[in-house]
Amino acid sequence: MGISCCFSLVLFLFVIFSTGLNLLGLADPTDGFTRIPLTERNFGLQKPFNLPLKDRYSYHNGVRRFWVYTNDKPFKPDTTTKPRTEIRIKGLDYSSGIWQFEGYAYVPTRTSGVTIMQIHGAKVGATSLQLRIYDGDMKYYKFQVVDTNLYDKWFRLNVIHNVDEGKIIVFIDGVQKFEINDQGPGDLYFKCGVYAAPANSSNYMESRWRDIKIYKK
């Protein structure tokens, strides 16, 4: 077999292999995106207003740990929202385009009824997306199941928000798990940590995060 034939065969196999990965949903969700550099100034921390940060948050060896209790105060005195300890990505608010959040998350057993990741802002309502953990399963708000059996292990979460098309896509460990229409354009930004759900939260709630990244296409 000549060199040109060998090259053509290799190219053909590469195309077939790549296409197969795409059809199986195994292409990396960050393909075609540009990573946006982050510094600590991009990580705005929210916690119960009457407590020092160290009582509800730690950052050690690259792992950010968030915890909160159901009887904690909200993040500021003049709000009736539920207790939280969260990062709000600052300086990267958006209202158009295609954006992506990536992070590795860990949720310990017995943490339930808690939002671990949000897209804040919408034309209708306060948020475009809430990903909640209920008894180890991830749900879209309290409705559709996104993935199951997520307790006590690190998993990679990627959330793509195509504002121009009004679509949100969720990936777990590189595999697409969920897609839904958003709530309309608004002043949008990403959040992660722990935020008590409207009802039936566990008394103690915790999530851990590492390697948080933001991408744009």
Automatic annotation (TrEMBL):
<keyword id="KW-0732">Signal</keyword>
<protein>
    <recommendedName>
        <fullName>Alginate lyase 2 domain-containing protein</fullName>
    </recommendedName>
</protein>
<dbReference type="InterPro" id="IPR013320">
    <property type="entry name" value="ConA-like_dom_sf"/>
</dbReference>
<dbReference type="InterPro" id="IPR014895">
    <property type="entry name" value="Alginate_lyase_2"/>
</dbReference>
<feature type="signal peptide">
    <location>
        <begin position="1"/>
        <end position="20"/>
    </location>
</feature>
<feature type="domain" description="Alginate lyase 2">
    <location>
        <begin position="42"/>
        <end position="215"/>
    </location>
</feature>
<dbReference type="Pfam" id="PF08787">
    <property type="entry name" value="Alginate_lyase2"/>
</dbReference>
